[in-house]
């Protein structure tokens, strides 16, 4: 969102600079060959500044004609050429920074997932022979949290292992076991840095209802 705002305001600034210099050069060059060729109207002037001065299409011819007509015209064009490309460059830099940030975040997320998955697989292998290699049970998870290396990776990733251990239903949702892939997705979804979603609110509602039933208290009817 912030990057979109930066791009919007950068484009707005560039458009404002083009508009202001187009007004100035259109008024100054009125009735001259420069005005007839490049600045007959305000819109034509903005077009000339955008493509000739910003994108450097035929800029030498425009600059030569400006300085031949009047030194003030050439100086105005020179100031515009300095300001406008800097604005465009800032826009490009902002886009590149956003792209690099998104790619870096995606790579970091993938690296975190791979590290957790590999550590989980290694820890499960050290538990000994298992009936199902691709699933993890509640009891196995309770045994895994005794491994400092695995717990350390969970904590570094922002996963609250203690909360999961206190209430395994946060991950297992009442099931006795689940696949390792599903377990990984559920645990990563419980990181404190993740934004809250509608799914999280639904799970919270189910958790509250389950706790109320466990304590023998009927759930209160929802008001409309």
Q: What fold name stands as the CATH topology of the largest domain?
A: Helix Hairpins
> What is the CATH architecture assignment of the largest domain?
Orthogonal Bundle
What count of domains describes the coordinates?
2
What would CATH call the class of the largest domain? Mainly Alpha
Which percent range fits the helix content?
over 70%
Word description of this protein:
There is one protein chain. With 224 residues, the protein is an all-alpha fold. It folds into 2 domains: 2-105, Helix Hairpins; 127-214, no CATH class. 74% of the residues lie in helices and 3% in strands. A two-stranded antiparallel sheet has the order 1-2. The longest helix is centred in the middle third of the chain and has 56 residues, at 71-126. The model has no long low-confidence stretch (mean pLDDT 76).
Summarize the structure.
It comes from Symbiodinium necroappetens. Keywords: Membrane, Transmembrane, Transmembrane helix. With 224 residues, this protein is mainly alpha-helical.
Topology:
Blueprint: H1 2-28, H2 33-37, H3 42-54, H4 59-69, H5 71-126, E1 135-137, H6 138-144, H7 148-156, H8 161-166, H9 169-172, E2 177-179, H10 180-189, H11 198-214
Helix pairs in contact: 1-3, 1-5, 4-5, 5-7, 5-10
């Amino acid at each position: 969102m912030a990057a979109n705002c930066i791009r919007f305001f950068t484009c707005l600034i560039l458009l404002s600079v083009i508009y202001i210099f187009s007004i100035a050069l259109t008024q100054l060059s009125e009735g001259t060959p420069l005005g007839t060729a490049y600045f007959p109207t305000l819109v034509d002037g903005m077009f000339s500044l955008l493509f000739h001065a910003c994108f450097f299409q035929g800029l030498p011819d425009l600059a030569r004609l400006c300085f031949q007509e009047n030194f003030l015209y050439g100086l105005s064009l020179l100031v515009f050429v300095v300001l406008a490309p800097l604005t465009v460059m800032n826009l490009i830099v902002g886009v590149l920074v956003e792209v690099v940030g998104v790619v870096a975040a995606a790579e970091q997320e993938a690296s975190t997932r791979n590290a957790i998955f590999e550590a989980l697989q290694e820890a499960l292998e050290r538990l000994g022979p298992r009936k199902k290699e691709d699933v993890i049970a509640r009891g196995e998870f309770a045994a895994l949290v005794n491994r400092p290396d695995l717990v350390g990776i969970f904590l570094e990733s922002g996963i609250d292992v203690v909360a999961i251990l206190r209430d395994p239903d946060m991950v297992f949702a009442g099931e006795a076991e689940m696949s390792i892939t599903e377990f990984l997705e559920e645990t990563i979804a419980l990181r404190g840095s993740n934004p809250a979603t509608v799914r999280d609110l639904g799970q919270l509602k189910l958790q509250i209802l389950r706790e109320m039933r466990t304590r023998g208290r009927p759930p209160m009817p929802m008001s409309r």
